[in-house]
Specification:
heterotrimer, A alpha+beta (360), B mainly alpha (309), C mainly alpha (281), A: 360 residues, alpha+beta, Rossmann fold, OB fold (Dihydrolipoamide Acetyltransferase, E2P), six-stranded mixed beta sheet, six-stranded antiparallel beta sheet, 21 strands, 35% strand, C: 281 residues, mainly alpha, MetI-like fold, 2 domains, 15 helices, 73% helix, globular, membrane (chain B)
């Protein structure tokens, strides 16, 4: 397995710069996710690593060797495509064998590798079928198998789960996690689904509008989002944002909402820009319905998810936020409630969207 | 998935130096289009310009020489009653056939746009004649038009009428060729319209029926707007195609009687390969080219304007 | 339009329409039926009047005469050689060029493609005099290559195949690139097999076009032994009125029309699809 280094790579389509001066190091054996909304450049970046897009500036190194001028086949990586991209007229066996034949792998070696990969992926009984005769999940496995047999320096996944139905997606996710734990292969996984990124990756690269917003472990991304974009994009329901006035409370910031109620955060007050307009960011699970809660409001919508209930609450000053209640919550739309905020998990954001967190 | 024992990679890529394709422009990629381009340049582009050059030569077939004559051939063409007549004949033929192709093609398509077996058979019948060669089609229609022994003459006599001599009467020769042509290749416009009709979502008609739209109303409010593009394609295609009238005229009437049914291409053929006035024929073919290009362009712009309005 | 077939209250109208189209179709077939009947009549009787067509005697002699006297077989063979040559040539050139224009980038490619498309607007008649001159200069008239080669310059197939290659998802090529396949291998092993429906469409189209082509073979092939069937049958009909062989001519026409008709019956689905496809592109 090999590390992958991106050294201030840039990409232009015509005059539009889609990736500018991006640097990133992916360690050997790491499972890394590129997470972001569509159009953020994550797929382009992956395709640049694969050699399917030209690089307009910077360097890409795989296992220390510079590859950005090599054709895709010479880079020693394998890719699993969103729509699988299986060769429709070839059997599963031939799909898997094609790449190995092209580099002159001996026949017996090809057969051995395919047999092994098919066993791992439980597709041995499908080897003589054609892709058209397979279900979506089976095609997915074949696509993974085609990568597996090549024993590549790195695996590149381009939204591989987005074409599966919900149940299959969850199952495949678990299988991918297991596969990675066993192979310990360097893997890049592009997705717009935060759950996939959170559950699979050892590190997540959150991208937005052609640049990297944050690189970190899943819990870093979730617990200490670097920017408002990351905070909003990761986590469901999205983090609540409310404009606040901040006061210094013994070195830590206290945030006063529009209705006058106060959230005591653990964010150091001296780190905050003076006189800036700030907003507090709180996740729904940090806002609970409690009789002694400080913030009064009225429930407009109650979304019952079974294990928990999301309450959309309008506050006195007209702003709204989403709070979490238990699954057996008796709260009805129209009810007046009082909310208690767990200030220790609250974040503050400045006008530019930069985040300020509690000390670790 | 069970345990993984995929053998340690023996650096697969090192087995043989890979020669895989890469993205981006490569000169070697031009090799894919080169063979066709060779034919294209040699047998279409070169003849096109050579034809223009030839149209400005006056050839002498006795000593096989030719000399540059500028636009003399063109000047002569515009004063050649036979040529001018052939231009009018061709235009008249286009005016007769194109509306017929559109109207009959659309009517057949509307009637046969169904999924039952009868409709499929009928479609096959109407399209089937298109696969016959012009030679066979003209034999068939000679047997229809023959003054004495023809089928139409027989039918007219049966009804107590005096049989008409279609192919030898000046006013009937071109219409007779037009009827033959429509019979021959009505299948293409019909199929084009059918393809367009099948693109219209059935829900539109169901919604219209729920809105109390009559069949007539549905046709004008849903069908016609939906197939406008195809209508344009059919009209342009047929104009261009019918301007090239040749075989039917040569084989049914030889351009007669008295030049009444001689189209431009027949004029070119006769000048070029019967009288061997190559320069003169080349000039006529350039004029045909220009007329066709103008007709297609005019139609294209006219319809685009209408769509934009 | 299965949906509108089902709309309640339109059943009777639909039936009336269908019945009228059936009538029209019967009229449509009358000319062919007429020729078919005549082809089974003795020539001597047709000399007097074709009115005898509906009474016996009928005979197969006109057809058996074809086997003995006419050049039809030679012409059929010529047509087969020419049509197969044109078809194979067009398929090879158009597939290569279609892949090139759709997938294999090189500088100036898009400009060249537009120039090729402009070729669609050049009618055969505009270049036929010069083409004839070219093949005259090469002393190639009355050979198969002379009849075949001009057909290979048509841009239609290139256009069709380019559109078809463009419609194939690009990630298939990309997967093949990652699998270390060369440009030609991607074309030959990966994409070409996916274009078989288009090959069938273009192939049948080209075959029928070449088989029925009249103008160029008429000009290029002047020796009867090089006639295609289309030119050959035409050559026999120019003076048929005086000749003894009206029924014989009809039989020749039927016989000559048979091969394409069989092709049509077998490949009707593809032919229809080809026509529909040409409309959409």
């Amino acid at each position: 397995m090999s590390s992958i280094e991106l050294d201030s790579v840039s990409k232009r389509f015509g005059s539009v710069e889609v990736i500018s001066e991006l640097s990133l190091t992916i360690h050997s054996g790491e499972f890394i996710a590129f997470l972001g909304p569509s159009g953020c450049g994550k797929s382009t970046l992956l395709r640049m690593i694969a050699g399917l897009e030209t690089v307009n500036g910077g360097e890409i190194r795989i296992g220390g060797e510079r590859v950005d001028h090599l054709p895709p086949g010479a880079r020693g990586v394998a890719m699993v495509f969103q729509h699988y991209a299986l060769y429709p007229h070839m059997t599963v066996f031939d799909n898997l064998a094609f790449g190995l034949k092209n580099i002159g792998t001996p026949k017996e070696e090809i057969a051995r590798r395919i047999e092994e990969a098919a066993r791992i992926l439980e597709i041995s009984h499908l080897l003589q079928r054609k892709p058209g005769q397979l279900s979506g999940g089976q095609r997915q496995r074949v696509a993974i198998g085609r990568a597996l047999v090549k024993d590549p320096k790195a695996y590149l996944f381009d939204e591989p789960l987005s074409n599966l139905d919900a149940a299959l997606r969850v199952r495949t996710r678990v299988e991918l996690a297991r596969l990675h734990q066993q192979t310990r292969a360097t893997t890049i996984f592009v997705t717009h689904d935060q759950v996939e990124a959170m559950t699979l990756a050892s590190r997540i690269v959150v991208m937005n509008a052609r640049k990297v917003e944050q690189v970190g472990t899943p819990m870093d991304i979730y617990g200490r989002p670097a920017t408002e974009f990351v905070a909003r994009f990761v986590g469901s329901p999205a983090m609540n944002f409310l404009p606040v006035q901040v006061r210094d409370r013994g070195g830590l910031a206290s945030a006063m909402l529009g209705d006058g109620s106060v959230i005591d955060t653990d964010v150091p007050a001296d780190a905050l820009p003076a006189g800036a307009e700030l907003r507090v960011g709180v996740r729904a699970e940090a806002i609970r319905v409690r009789q002694d809660g400080a913030i009064p409001g009225k429930v407009e919508v109650a979304e019952r998810l079974g294990d928990r209930t999301h309450l959309h609450v309008r506050l006195m000053d007209g702003s709204t936020l989403v709070a979490e209640d238990t699954g057996i919550s008796q709260v009805q739309p129209g009810d007046a409630v009082r909310l208690a905020v767990e200030g220790a998990t609250a974040h503050l954001f400045d006008a530019a969207g930069l985040a300020y967190h509690a000390r670790q | 998935m069970t345990d993984v024992t995929l053998s340690p990679g023996k650096a697969t890529a090192a087995v043989k130096r890979p020669t895989g394709a890469s993205i981006g422009p490569r000169w070697s990629n031009a090799l894919f289009v080169a063979p066709y381009l060779a034919f294209y340049l040699a047998l279409l582009v070169y003849p096109l310009f050579k034809g223009i050059w030839m149209s400005m030569l006056q050839s002498d077939m006795f000593d096989d020489t030719s000399k540059f004559a500028g636009l003399a051939n063109y000047y002569r063409l515009f004063n050649d009653k036979v040529f001018i007549g052939s231009v009018w004949n061709t235009i008249w033929f286009v005016v007769m056939t194109v509306p017929a192709f559109v109207a009959i093609g659309l009517l057949l398509a509307l009637a046969l746009n169904r999924s039952d077996r009868t409709s499929a058979t009928l479609r096959a019948i109407f399209f089937g004649t298109s696969v016959l060669s012009v030679t066979i089609v003209t034999i068939i229609w000679k047997m229809m038009y023959m003054p004495g022994n023809g089928a139409i003459a027989g039918i007219m006599r049966f009804f107590g009428m005096e049989p008409l001599a279609f192919t030898t009467t000046a006013s009937l020769a071109l219409p007779a060729i037009a009827i033959t042509t429509v019979w021959w290749i009505i299948g293409l416009p019909m199929m084009l319209f059918l393809a367009a009709l099948q693109q219209i979502p059935g829900e539109l008609y169901e919604a219209a029926a729920l809105d109390n739209a009559s069949r007539w109303r549905s046709f004008w409010s849903i069908t016609m707007p939906s197939i406008r593009r195809t209508l344009l394609v059919v009209v342009i295609y047929e104009i261009v195609a019918q301007f090239q009238l040749f075989g039917q005229a040569l084989l049914l009437t030889q351009g007669g009687p008295n030049n009444a049914s001689r189209p431009i291409v027949l004029f070119i053929y006769e000048q070029g390969f019967r009288s061997w006035n190559l320069g003169y024929a080349a000039a006529a073919s350039e004029i045909l080219f220009i007329i066709m290009a103008v007709a297609a362009l005019a139609q294209f712009f006219a319809s685009r304007k209408r769509v934009e309005e | 339009m299965a949906a509108s077939e089902r709309i309640v209250g339109r059943g009777i109208g639909n039936k009336v329409i269908l019945a009228s189209v059936v009538l029209v179709a019967i009229v449509w077939m009358l000319p062919i039926a007429w020729v078919l009947i005549l082809s089974f009549k003795p020539n001597s009787e047709l000399m007097i009047s074709t009115a005898s067509a509906f009474h016996p005697p009928y005979t197969l002699k006109n057809y058996t005469d074809i086997f003995q006297t006419s050049g039809v077989f030679r012409w059929l063979w010529n047509s087969a050689v020419v049509s197969v040559g044109v078809t194979v040539g067009i398929l090879i050139l158009s597939s290569l060029a279609g892949y090139g224009f759709a997938r294999a980038e090189f500088k100036g490619r898009d400009v060249i493609f537009i120039l090729v498309l402009l070729g669609l607007a050049v009618p055969e008649q505009a270049v036929i005099i010069a083409r004839h001159q070219i093949f005259s200069d090469l002393k190639m008239h009355n050979t198969y290559p002379a009849i075949i080669l001009p057909g290979l310059s048509s841009a239609f197939g290139v256009f069709l195949m380019t559109q078809y290659f463009k419609a194939i998802p690009k990630d298939i090529d990309e997967a093949a690139m990652l699998d270390n396949a060369s440009r030609f291998k991607i074309f030959w092993k990966v994409l070409l097999p996916l274009t078989i429906p288009a090959q069938a469409t273009l192939g049948i189209f080209s075959f029928l076009g070449a088989w029925n082509d009249y103008l160029w073979p008429l000009i290029s092939a002047t020796k009867p032994e090089m006639f295609t069937i289309t030119v050959g049958i035409a050559s026999t009909q120019t003076n048929f009125a005086q000749s003894e062989g009206l029924g014989f001519l009809m039989a020749q026409a039927i016989f000559a029309g048979l091969p394409v008709f069989v092709v049509y019956l077998f490949f009707q689905k593809y032919i229809v699809r080809a026509v529909a496809g040409a409309a959409i592109t």
